[in-house]
Amino acid sequence: MKYIIFLFFLQLGFYSYSQEYYKGTLNYKISLSFNKASDSIKYYGDWEKYSPELLKIFSSPVSEKYLVKKDTVLIYQFLKEDVQAQYILISAKNKLDRLDVTSGQINKWGDFSPKKYLKFKSYKRIADEDEIILQKECSVWLSTSKNGWRKVWLTNIDEKLPSTEGSQIFLDGKLILKQVSFFNDGRIITKQIANRGSLSESNFGKLIGAHNKIDIKSKYLPIAENSEYHDKALKKGDLAPNLHYRNIFENKLSCLYESTQKSKYTIIELWGTWCVPCLLATEKIKMLRKKFKAEHLSIISLNCRDRNIEKVKSVIEKKDMKWEHGYTTEKLTSIFNKKRSYPKLLILDNNNKVLFIGNPQTDIDEIEAIIAGK
C-alpha cells in the first residue's frame, strides 16, 4: 500500500513539473503607420486641441514590457522610450487591474479587445506570410470575424502561459510574437517582439508597492468640524452646509462659507488625477477662471481618491490650476457627490444656495450661463 501511495505522489510531482509555466520577460516594440497621408493628417489633427498632458494619457504606447510568471502578468506601458512607464497592467487570477503610475491609483480594468479576436477558432491560416522572428518559425493567422483586421504571428512551439485575461500575449497556448491591427480610420498598429529575457523582477509585490506609495491617506480622514452635518446628498435648491476641508498647499483647514462670501458665485469641483474626464474638464474651468474675476467667481477643487501628495501637487502646478485646492473626505463626497460620478461640479450663490449640479466637461455652456447671470 505504501508503495502505491509513493508512486501516486511521484506521478503527481512529475505531472506538476511537466505543467511548469513560462517565466520570463517579453519586450515588444509598437509602431503606428497609416494607409494614406491624408489619414495621418486627419488623425493628428484631431488631437491638436488637447494639452500635452492629455495627449500623454490618450497616446498609444511605443513599447510594452511583459513580466510573466506562474499566475501573474505585469504589463508595463511606455509612451516614450527610456522613460518611466505610464501605466502598469496587472493580470492575475483572471482579473485585470491598471495602476496609474502618475497618481498611484489602482483601478479595475476591462479587457477592451473584442472577444471575437481572442478566440483562436475565429482565425484562419495564411501560410505565405510566415516569418522567422527571434530565431523562431512563426505561423500567420488572420481573424475571420466580421470586419476582421487582426493578424497574429504565433510560435510553433507550445509554451504554457498564465491563464489570465487581458495579457493578450498568447492564442491557443502559443506566444504571439507579432500582431498587426488595422483600424477604420486608416491606422495600422504593429506590435512586434524585440527580445525575450529571463525573469529578473520575481518579487511582484515589491514592484507594485514601489509605484503604489500611499502618503495621502491622512488627508482624507474625518474632520471634527463636519461631524454635526448629516450625510444627505445635496439637491438643486438646497442650502449647502459650511463644510471644512484640508487645504492642499497650506497646512490648515478651510471652510466653504469663507469662499462663498468672497464672490457672487462659487464652484465646487470634485476630481482626481486618475480621472481622464476630470483632466479634460480642467481646461473648461480654466476658461471660466479667465473670463470671470475673483469677486464674481470663486473656485474650489476637492481631490478624491488619489494616493500620493506630491503627484497631486505636481499635476495642479503643471496644468496651471490657479484656484483653491483641498482634499475631500467621506462626508464631503457623500454630500457633494453621492453617486461617485466624476468629475462633479456644483455652483453656489453667496447665500450658499445650490444653483447647479452636473458635469463640467459636458455641461459647460449651462454652467457659464448661470455664472454670467443669464
Automatic annotation (TrEMBL):
PROSITE patterns: THIOREDOXIN_2. Residues 234-374 form the Thioredoxin domain. It is found in: Cell envelope. Its main location: other. Gene3D superfamilies: Glutaredoxin. The keyword Lipid metabolism does not apply. GO terms for cellular component: cell envelope. The keyword Disulfide bond applies. Keywords: Cytochrome c-type biogenesis, Disulfide bond, Redox-active center. GO terms for biological process: cytochrome complex assembly. This is Thioredoxin domain-containing protein. The lineage of its organism: Bacteria, Pseudomonadati, Bacteroidota, Bacteroidia, Marinilabiliales.
